[in-house]
């Protein structure tokens, strides 16, 4: 049984079903019926890709795997039982012989006044859809207002956290809101939408190759993004954001990309953790529980290429760890020998929108259109499905203006920052048809 169908869980399920060829029952428990290709979410928010393009059907691409829709909330390691709530609020439970925990991560919170109430994260589809609509709405409300202060506040967007998520959101966001403003007669004479990207670190993309930081910094500043390093938020209100240097930025948009923390399900297990991630050995097994495996963002996997460290929370590692977990599950059932997880980073790609990207495939630094082409090519190859649809959207975006409409289906209260399940929009109790 695999809990969580993200990069780690999806690849584990696929590798196991190929290896088992029907000799084992493989159950995948996930709240939704799709694998979310998270790295392209900023393109959904910027109206380049339609949301279903980054949602790959689980049943359609994982023959031989039984999908159970549900959100796990309890694991009884002695009884080998997982309890869950299904999308219609019904309780269920499943027993297992082998368990692979791949529940990923959720938005990281910081104890800053007002942030939980006024900021929105960027970890799941509902948040990306909310942000897309929100940007369109703010630009339209600004265009309809006669008050210059309101116009300025509504066209000011603050992104906190300049890791790859925040950097990509700001890079795509500024291009999107510029195109919306150009289409809006009320904003033809200004103001031009303003984007701020803040980080407490001294450079963008902290933790990645400095050459990527320089490229991202140059591209974003060139687009007019106000990049503020060494800066954080002191307080957030409904009217704007107070920075730690005392400046108040009037804005209706605070996008919280300060990072992620492991899914809270892990904490509830009562097993050793490292910064919230479940401790496992190099074979991805939970010590003392040879039948339980964990990997991806939710697990602290020893990084054999950097002794003493754990592997970073990236799709690159999660995907490969999922395959190794599948191999080791099979080995634990008598097929093959267990293998330790070892992978040296192959570089990183940060999509900056337009034709720009900052990339270092195999640690060769690239920028400009070449990096953009390599990044898009990589994403197409890495996606387990929907490739033609994604490529078609990219082609359409190259020749047509962006669609500046908001459907208003995701409201702010349904995408709270503090949630254990950013993958599902919160609904008022009973409004989904449940009793
Ligand atoms: C906007 C953005 C851009 C990114 N870009 C990149 C990039 O370019 N390159 C890169 O390497 N990494 C990138 N990352 C990081 C990467 O997406 C993660 O490291 C990766 O998704 C981790 O994979 P995972 O399988 O551990 O978790 P996830 O992919 O998050 O999957 C977790 C799965 O578990 C499910 N789940 C959660 N809780 C439960 C539960 N209680 N019960 C059942 N199921 C549950 C979730 O619904 C989800 O399907 C990006 C992240 C974000 C947010």
TrEMBL record:
Residue ranges occupied by any FAD/NAD(P)-binding domain in the UniProt entry: 1-322
Gene3D superfamilies attached to this UniProt entry: 3.50.50.100
PANTHER family xref list: NADH DEHYDROGENASE, NADH DEHYDROGENASE-LIKE PROTEIN RV1812C
Keyword field: FAD, Flavoprotein, NAD, Oxidoreductase
Coiled-coil spans in chain: none
Protein's name in the database: NADH dehydrogenase
Family membership noted in the UniProt record: Belongs to the NADH dehydrogenase family.
The keyword Cell membrane is assigned to this record: no
GO MF, one example: NADH dehydrogenase activity
Pfam families: Pyr_redox_2
């Amino acid at each position: 049984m695999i809990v969580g169908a993200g990069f780690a869980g999806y690849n584990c399920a696929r590798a196991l079903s190929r290896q088992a060829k029907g000799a084992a029952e493989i159950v995948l428990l996930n709240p939704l019926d799709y694998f979310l290709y998270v790295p392209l979410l900023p393109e959904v928010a910027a109206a380049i890709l339609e949301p279903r393009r980054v949602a790959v059907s689980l049943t359609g691409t994982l023959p031989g795997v039984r999908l159970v829709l549900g959100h796990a909330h309890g694991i009884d390691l002695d009884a080998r039982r997982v309890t869950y709530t299904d999308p219609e609020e019904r309780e269920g439970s499943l027993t297992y012989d082998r368990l692979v925990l791949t529940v990923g991560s959720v938005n990281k919170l910081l104890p800053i006044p007002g942030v939980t109430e006024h900021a929105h994260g960027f970890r799941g589809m509902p948040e990306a859809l909310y942000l897309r609509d929100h940007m369109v709405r703010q630009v339209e409300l600004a265009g309809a207002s006669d008050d210059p202060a309101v116009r300025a506040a509504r066209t000011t967007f603050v992104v906190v956290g300049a890791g790859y998520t925040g950097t990509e959101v700001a890079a795509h966001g500024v291009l999107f809101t510029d195109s919306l403003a150009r289409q809006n007669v009320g904003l033809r004479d200004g103001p031009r939408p303003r984007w701020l990207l803040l980080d407490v670190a001294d450079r963008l993309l902290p933790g990645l190759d400095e050459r990527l930081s320089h490229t991202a910094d140059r591209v974003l500043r060139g687009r007019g993004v106000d990049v503020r390093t060494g800066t954080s938020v002191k307080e957030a209100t409904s009217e704007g954001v107070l920075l730690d240097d005392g400046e108040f930025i009037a804005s209706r948009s605070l996008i919280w990309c300060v990072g992620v923390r492991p899914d809270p399900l892990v904490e509830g297990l009562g097993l050793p953790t490292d910064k919230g991630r479940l401790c496992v050995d190099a074979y991805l097994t939970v010590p003392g529980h040879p039948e339980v495996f964990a990997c991806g963002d939710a697990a602290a996997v020893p990084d054999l290429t950097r002794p003493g460290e754990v592997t970073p929370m990236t799709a690159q590692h999660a995907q490969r760890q999922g395959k190794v977990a599948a191999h080791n599950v099979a080995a634990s059932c008598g097929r093959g020998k267990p293998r330790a997880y070892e992978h040296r980073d192959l570089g990183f790609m940060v999509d900056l929108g337009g034709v720009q990207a900052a990339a270092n495939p195999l640690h060769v630094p690239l920028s400009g259109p070449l990096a953009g082409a390599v990044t898009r090519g990589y994403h197409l190859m890495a996606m387990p499905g929907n490739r033609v649809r994604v490529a078609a959207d990219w082609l359409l975006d190259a020749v047509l203006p962006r669609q500046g409409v908001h459907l208003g289906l995701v409201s702010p209260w349904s995408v709270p920052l503090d949630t254990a399940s950013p993958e599902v929009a919160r609904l008022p109790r009973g409004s989904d048809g449940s009793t």
